[in-house]
Design a protein that fits this description.
The chain has 5 helices and 13 strands. Helix 2 runs antiparallel to helix 3.
Length: about 220
């Protein structure tokens, strides 16, 4: 199944998939993408063609192979290095947000909310201006706190009570952060593409949060 993210054509060119949309006349699934270089603008190609198997020197390969969305081994090592011996939580959150923003594709917001006076309050982030306060149990972030559980939302418009800080956001992942056995805050990441995040992202980002928790 084609998902938003980066892909490499078997001849070497790289492309970024933004969405899967229905053709207005044939109702065929179309991959909406942009070339990393050369071609300009957005293009559309039938999803079936995107997933075709081709024969290259006697070996069968997929026409467009997905490139790993994020190198979590690198991200984890970068986070460990940047927070080492730093006892300033604001500095650490700011640098972790910057690392994730630089290393993950197809995002429109990365940042933190911290529990203050019984509610989530905005912390360091990358992206557009955001909601300053979020009540526990409200939206994806508030639900992550209330349930003390990572929220991986394929389509935020189908999430009951979603808070639209940025109307461009279509998928989201929120990971609770703990201190002394209680939820201290959350890591919140948004994407303009439906279905941007998967189990690989969940595991990788939970590992990042575990590193951050050790500095609190």
């Amino acid at each position: 199944m084609i998902k938003p993210g980066k892909y490499r054509h078997y001849k070497g060119n790289e492309y970024e998939v933004y969405d899967i949309a229905k053709h207005s006349e044939t109702l065929e699934d179309m991959v909406v993408y942009r070339a990393q270089y050369g071609e300009h603008g957005l293009w559309a190609r039938p999803a079936g063609m995107w997933e075709e198997i081709v024969n290259v020197d006697g070996k069968e390969v997929v026409r467009f192979a997905k490139i790993q969305d994020a190198d979590y081994d690198y991200i984890v090592q970068a986070v460990k290095a940047i927070v080492a011996n730093v006892d300033n939580e604001v500095s650490n959150m700011a640098n972790v947000a910057a690392i994730l923003w630089e290393c993950m594709s197809n995002l429109n917001w990365v940042g933190f909310y911290v529990m203050r006076n019984g509610e989530l309050q905005l912390g360091p982030f990358q992206g557009k201006t955001a909601c300053t306060r979020i009540a526990v149990g409200k939206g994806v972030c508030g639900t992550a706190v209330a349930e003390d559980k990572t929220q991986l939302v394929v389509d935020v418009h189908e999430f009951p009570g979603h808070i639209a800080c940025d109307s461009a956001s279509n998928s989201e992942i929120v990971v609770p952060i703990h201190k002394d056995g209680k939820v201290w805050g959350v890591l919140d990441i948004d994407s303009p593409s439906v279905g941007r995040f998967d189990e690989e992202d969940r595991k990788g980002l939970e590992h990042v949060v575990e590193i951050l928790e050790k500095t609190l």
